[in-house]
From TrEMBL:
It comes from Hippea maritima (strain ATCC 700847 / DSM 10411 / MH2). Its EC number is 2.1.1.297. This is peptide chain release factor N(5)-glutamine methyltransferase. InterPro entries: HemK-like, N5-glutamine_MTase, PrmC_N, RF_methyltr_PrmC, SAM-dependent_MTases_sf, Small_mtfrase_dom. GO terms for biological process: methylation. Pfam families: MTS, PrmC_N. Keywords: Methyltransferase, S-adenosyl-L-methionine, Transferase. It comes from the Bacteria. The lineage of its organism: Bacteria, Pseudomonadati, Campylobacterota, Desulfurellia, Desulfurellales. PANTHER family: HEMK METHYLTRANSFERASE (PTHR18895), MTRF1L RELEASE FACTOR GLUTAMINE METHYLTRANSFERASE (PTHR18895:SF74). Residues 112-190 form the Methyltransferase small domain. GO terms for molecular function: peptide chain release factor N(5)-glutamine methyltransferase activity. Residues 5-74 form the Release factor glutamine methyltransferase N-terminal domain.
Amino acid sequence: MNIKEALQKTIQQLKQANIATYHIDALLILKDTIKKDDVYVLTNPQKELNDRQIEEIERLTNKRKLRYPMAYITHSKEFYGLEFYVDDRVLIPRPETELIVDVTLKIASDIKNPKIVDIGTGSGCIAITLSKLLDTHITASDISKEALNVAKLNAKRLDADISLINANGLDFLKNGIDIITTNPPYVLENEYELLSEDVKFEPKIALIPPSGNGFIEDLIEKAKQLTKWLIMEIGPSQLKIIKNSRYIYKIIRDFSNKERVAVFKF
Ligand SMILES: C[S@@+](CC[C@H](N)C(=O)[O-])C[C@H]1O[C@@H](n2cnc3c(N)ncnc32)[C@H](O)[C@@H]1O
């Protein structure tokens, strides 16, 4: 089988499985398998593939047909212009989370040597990006040791100055922090079932807070003893709590006009 035939076959299979992004996904699967770029794949249609490559394309296509996320297949996701390694130990960084970086950069620009901590760092996307853009050390934590291994790998690949701590919530912190950033798990149990199949391959611990909104309320309550600013991603189910807080400074809307990032000033 040559590249053109493999691409056509993969497109066909993904289309039949109702994968909306069948064309681009097929191209990514081909590229990932033969370790070449788009231009090579599209300009070498007659190039014969070996048996190992054909088997690998089949294996990845079957995974994608079950809605396994493309970012886990290619082990790559772009965040704020940086490329992060991802696998199913971590949440796939989302574009709306870049808003946390935007607002933190603005607030940090008025603070001399800002002390910043990122809670629930996952792939490390927020902490690593901030550390690179602010050229400063960032402390990042996660309850999942597996996630921290991915963050460690990304910090090394991207040469970022971060330290990683395995901890539950804010328990490890002492006061004197300028900014705490966090994209905590905020999907409630009853909302989880409604999520798309792709999302269900992501770690549940990254999505569902252990005690529902109590977890978020606890974060805000504890943060006020520790930091001047708390910058937190939220979903619609947290809006009531956020708006009731006397410490809310502003709420930033995402690209679909949903209230997405809450900024608290203590
Ligand atoms: C929504 S993900 C965010 C990951 C990453 N910061 C991002 O924005 O892509 C939430 C992260 O919080 C971590 N987490 C869940 N419960 C936690 C807890 N009690 N303490 C610390 N981290 C926790 C999860 O392991 C997961 O990595």
